[in-house]
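anyone seen this seq b4? input:
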Amino acid sequence: MTNEDLLRFYRSMLRIRQVEERIAERYDEGKMRCPTHLATGQEAIAVGVCAHLTSEDIVFSGHRNHAHYLAKGGDLNRMIAEMYGKQTGCSHGRGGSMHLVDRDCGMYGSSAIVGGSMPLSVGVAWAFKLRGESRVGAVFFGDAGVEPGMFHECMNFAALHKLGVLLVCENNGYATMTTFEERQCVPIAERAASYGVPGVRVDGNDLPAVLKAAHAAGERARHGGGPTFIEAVTYRWRAHVEHNKDIMSRPPEEMRHWKVRDPLVRCRADLLSMGVAPDELETIDRHVRLEVDGAFRFAEESPPPKVAELLHGVGDELPEIEEPTRPGTGRVIAYSKAVAEATVQAMIENPSVIVYGLDTSDANGVFGTTLAARERFPERVFGTPISEAARTGVATGMALVGMRPLHVHARDDFMLVAMSPLMNELAKWSYMSGGWLRAPVVIRGIIGRSRGQAAQHSQSLQSVFGHFPGLHVVAPSNAFDAKGMLLTALSGNTPVIFLEHRLCHPVETVVPEEAYRVPIGKARIVRKGSDVTIVALLQMVYEAEQAAERLASLGVKAEVIDLRTVRPWDKETVLDSVAKTGRLIVADTGWLDYGLSSEVTAHVAEHAFHALKSPPIRIALPPCPTPMAEPLENAYYPGSREIVVQALRFLGREVPPDLQGGFATEAIKSAF
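predicted toks r here
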């Protein structure tokens, strides 16, 4: 290195150190209300790794991220303003210390979940490889980051595809307050070999050593050599988080051992030995202090976010799409064929659309829905390991840099394994970044009843997914809507959970061959009526239609509404219908308690109570997991008969003999 190089790196480390020292001094004033995790003593790692990255390379981090943000070129003023919760903050006060982002320099954010941003870095690296770009992804995490299963899934995925990603473990000896020896029994860097990945262990307080390792890893990544795992051994001087800094005590000799290895002291000694004058170093110190002072003034003088903008940046805006005309005649195809056709048409329209998931590259596809895409675009349809969590986070990373991943889960039950990357990362990244970043991922999940599938292969989890802001949850019941809504989802800017009931897959509907789009968030009135409103979802739409036919034979006019979208659901259409009929039945494929039926009936009770002639009724699953045995399964699932019975009771009408009884137990009867 030249003197100029080393001086630049010294200034960068000094700047990080002084910023964090000032944060520690001022934290107790109460103006920084966010949890703050300092990396004092670890500065050489961030500076050494980022020295070889350009603004086009993408970095992710964890909750201890100030050094990475600043070393990558993040704006200091906006960083401190973010910690003060100001509108001028890098995330407009939405993220705080643990969620710093600066898109201009390639700092794409940080996750407070240990290992949470790891699959995002793998995702951006995969996007770069698919597009033939020599850009690099990098992620920083602590030694505890190698303990969750996510680490192993990501290592396997990155190695499998030879992705250009740097996985940088800052091993500072502690996870929160627990020592490395209490938690792990295998040297960290050695784990990389089991995935065929180079594992490099360096002194993280030795800047030249970090620079050398990072340069080799960066060149390997940039030229198709695949990932590198770097374990940088270091030590953090301060407690896990500033608000409990007095809780943690460490052996004094341990602290002395590491303080003499201070990377700043070592770098300063190197500079002096290279002939740099002490006065020059003092000048750098003064300039940095003035810059840090200015950043804190900027933060304190900046305005707070406007309360009126609380909902800005959630990232769930609805595209403006008109309802297409539904043809009465024409080509008739099954739901599964419509999904397959929409997938191919989306891939033709946009080269950024890729399809991946377990068995998507199999000859059968997922219920046959991915085979056509595989045949047309074999280079854009990928099978994956059984790594639900990692591959969901990978989709988020890809989407952040412009790809359009269509990620397929064979069953929505398995999506529960991926709840953290789904709900802690994908659903929140736009808001945590202050709206700077968007992740338009579409995730298909197959749900619902099938013969003998039992408790872990037949759940209907739309209410779970619908609970989280930042997502759209779509649930088309028929082939026409499935094709149009999938095309809408794949051209939007919002993450979409696209749920398909397996019993709907073989059902045929008239579907045009050309591409068209169906709006998300808009229900469809399937059948008009004036006596009772039946709101249904997915397979229960067909049960509601059958019930309406039977009711019509008994002189009752039922209005059937296919909700189509769980989040956001169409409140206006439902309220208008209830205002007309005065009676509401909600038929859901999920559980009765805490479910979609509760949400719909509660909203109607709040906003149309005066129009109700009787209390709303909910028809859904009883409060137990799905049984396997046929008699229990038949009793477990409600259908058209329950809807007819409840509608007749609404109206004070006699229930025909063929509809009476038949419930397995009084307990199940009371659940309805």
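The radius of gyration is 29 Å. The first helix runs from residue 3 to 26. kinda curious what u guys think
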